[in-house]
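[Q] Does anyone have a clean structure-token version of this?
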Amino acid sequence: MLGVTDYGSFVIAFIVLLIIPGPGNLALITSTSKGGIKGGLAATLGVIFGDQVLLWMAVAGVAAVLHSYPAAFQAVQWLGAAYLIWLGCKMLLAKPGVAPVLNIKPHHYMQQALTITLLNPKAIVFYMAFFPLFVDPVRHQGLITFGFMAMTIAILTFIYGLIAVLLTHFLAERLRANPAVTRVLEKLAGLSLIGFGLKLVSSR
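[A] Here you go.
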């Protein structure tokens, strides 16, 4: 589909990544708790804009490798799969810790969520590892393929953000930071990442 291999797996893998507890999720929950649905949706837009900036920075690197070193692109794909497996193992073996506390102030929720997202340089490394796994080096259509993937990520992030904001708003008391739930989600996400990495390795 527009140069994207296994689009269904691409969508599922990214949904798994959205669910992983992290600064972005915490920003959505905190903004919703302080600013209601409006504040939560503003924070969602901030996360989306920040992700798009980091995403296109990563695309520039991936596109350069694909254009200048086509033969090396397969090696990048293998490294990407290995990175997913390593990330999944790291999440499985992680010890329980205290969730980071974000100082989200009332108003300007979008700007604060944008800043939090942009201050996560690891996202660039992740996107550089993640994108090549789903790009067909033969059938890709350059910016059209990457643009299609970026649009998919923006839409999925908005839908996820909307659901998270509504759940937080209407079930705030039940969705307070729960270490046990966070650990379970982290372990499940870790297993999913390992599974995707192994699937992608076996399909090469």
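[Q] Thanks! Anything notable?
[A] The mean pLDDT is 75.
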